[in-house]
Amino acid sequence: MAGEPQADCLFCKIVAGDVPATVVRETATTVAFRDIHPQAPTHVLVIPRVHYPDAASLAAAEPQVAADVLAEAGAVAAAEKADATGYRIVFNTGSGAGQTVFHAHAHLLGGRGLNWPPG
């Protein structure tokens, strides 16, 4: 069921505390933790505590939680000082876009120049 924890979801297991992660911030609706394969000096994932497969389905079902994810990404950027030089927030949707964990999540990237276009 949408919004409910999924037994086979890595990020649901992190939210539950069953899989360790380097958590940098938590709120009632989000968890932010360091990416295990960082692509920039600051690379933090911000996830909702509720399970939705991607950002679009999260936003459609629970727009306030989607807003919380974005707000927390900004808060993490400030805490990590990534806001001093700029940062990027990325939502990958679908395997063709590089999504490998099908639990909505934002990648916060910063701490180095981020060229455009990406990829």
TrEMBL record:
CDD domains: PKCI_related
Pfam families reported for this sequence: HIT
Chain ranges of the HIT domain: 10-119
Taxonomic superkingdom: Bacteria
InterPro entries found in the cross-reference section: Histidine_triad_HIT, HIT-like, HIT-like_sf
Active-site residues annotated for this sequence: H105 (tele-amp-histidine intermediate)
Molecular function GO terms recorded: catalytic activity
Motif (Histidine triad motif): 103-107
PROSITE patterns according to UniProt: HIT_2
Signal peptide limits: none
Gene3D superfamilies linked: HIT-like
PANTHER family listed in its UniProt record: HISTIDINE TRIAD HIT PROTEIN
Protein's name in the database: Histidine triad nucleotide-binding protein
Species whose genome carries this gene: Streptomyces liangshanensis
